[in-house]
Amino acid sequence: MSSTPRTLLDKIWADHVIEELGDGWALLHIDRQLLHDMSGSRGLQELAARGLKAACPELTFATPDHTVSTAPGRRGIDAPLWSVLREGTAAQGIRLFDLGESGQGIVHVMGPELGFVLPGTTVICGDSHTCTNGALGAMAFGVGASELMHALATQTLMQRKPKAMRIRFTGRLAERVTAKDLILHAIGRLGTAAGTGYAVEYAGEPIEAMTVEQRMTLCNLSIEMGAKIGMVAPDEKVYAYLRGRRFAPTGDTWDRAVDYWRSLPGDANAVFHRDETLAVDALVPQISWGTSPEQECGIDGHVPAPEETADLARREAWQQARDYMGLAAGARLLGQKVDRVFIGSCTNSRMTDLRDAASLLAGGRRVAPHVQAWVVPGSEDVKREAEAEGLDAIFEAAGFHWREPGCSMCVAANGETAGPAERVVSTSNRNFVGRQGPGARTHLASPFTAVASALAGEIADPREL
Amino acid sequence: MTPFTIVHGPAVPLLIDNLDTDAIIRIDRLAAFGRQEIGPFALETLRQDPRSVLNRPEFAAAPILLGGRNFGCGSSREGAVWALAGYGFRSVVAESFGDIFFNNCFQNGVLPIRLERAKLERLAALADGGDAVTVDLVAQRLTFPDGSSEPIVVDAMKRAALLDGLDDVTRTLRKQDAIAEWQAGDRGRRPWVWEGLGGGGRTGGG
User: Fold this and answer.
1) Which chain B residue has its CA at the smallest distance from A294's CA?
2) Which residues of B touch A145 (CB under 8 A)?
3) Could you say which of A354, A355, A452, B162 would form a disulfide bridge with A460 (CB–CB 3.0 to 4.6 Å)?
């Protein structure tokens, strides 16, 4: 008996349909929900306002990350939505990992780290970077406060099945060229709307070669190319990553789970609605120059000039981006003076990121005197592990500020902002106008490039260190 | 939710590509103000520029917003739709939308309409003087100020919900038995999803 070959998306989708609603819509079971102190607090307020109770509170974890301070020794801070989250989760019987506790952290860091997110599960959070969790082979996507409330009340969502897109990479990443560079390059090539309406599955040897944490960085930026969902088929690395984690299955249940997970990767001849192939052999570290993640280039590249595109709308967008960023047409990125460096965010705040960054700080290297440089670990557990390895001491000896876990300068919802016209090299995921503070100029890059730029005091190539 | 049938009035031609939800509502406003209070802060960064089309008097009470490509990309914040709705917009017509924003619109009685670029530009030119545009969800038609019109393609389920002002949660809560039955089966199929989470929580359904 032969059946139609299925993609990873097809398989996960089919295993969560409670009821087909017609026209491609389905009532889907939601296996995992993550709440944070912006949308999570709002969702809990909406739920309470309607007099509803969480249907399956044990399938939801909560943690404060967006609006809380990351200042060392933070206490007694003014974050009203943090209180809302604490009160709302207590009222609903939802487990909260609060400040200072093991488990607290950026939702997309702590979910996988706790073994809460598993392959083949449906995962939602009121946060567009929920796609990060797709690195484990989960179908994870961001929702708004209404959908969040719907899922809390019913443990389901009405969803329309997205189309499937595969992006296959070929070749090998050169030294000091990372998952971040690979995905920035893909967004630059395909554009910020390429994935709209699609679930993207990343494939190819460079992806297989990546650690699970690097795949999280990769999947994290799926939304920056318009895709709500980004995934990598689960493999042995994922099972090794999950085994023994706090909430991961154990014993016979673990064995059953792994058997099931091994059945999830797409069938050989499965058909995608869109298929792209990108070579990475010659890829150099990437950096964004403008105010959209697609406005990026190689570290040795330049800001494009108007004549480099015939598209009038794009010309105008480029002009506005150059004006905001304070960069002339044709200017080189290398050598642009930098005011701040931020290593952190759900993109690049995991142990591998911090190890990458610290690895460039040997031999008494120091952050340039005029640069304010921050390292913000993604979670309490990352912080503790990094401190146990002595990474905090390495960063501090080099002149970096070592902080408490949270979203910090990525989302800048907590007053942790760059000033007007300050140039920031940031490992975060968005360089939007005003994202890191009104007038702040954000260049997206990898932790390697961030460190190289912090040391040089200007945008610098990490391969030269 | 306010039902959506016909909306008639000026349409602000704001044809900016990749207008992200950070630009629609600043995060610090969302952190400081409630859902009903953020309307005045919609698109404030753009409105700071006195030359912005949003500041023209003929658009002061416009119920329709015209956007470019990939409107509402970026952050999933539903506050972006709350802000636009609070500011007075009932419909956004754009070349394309960020997926999460597009979906959030329907949850809040705001109708997002995709329109191909050439037609969008023609509509923007016609709407520039403040003449009224009509969005008719009943007849599924978008009528330009010169009387010409385009069909609107709206998902049947979403259309029905908007017309009735119906809420997804109410509908799904009626399916609680089917959900509980599915979950009972799933505990056997995928016990690892349900076991080991601790906290002693009880599962829903009844």
Assistant:
1) B18
2) 78-79
3) A452
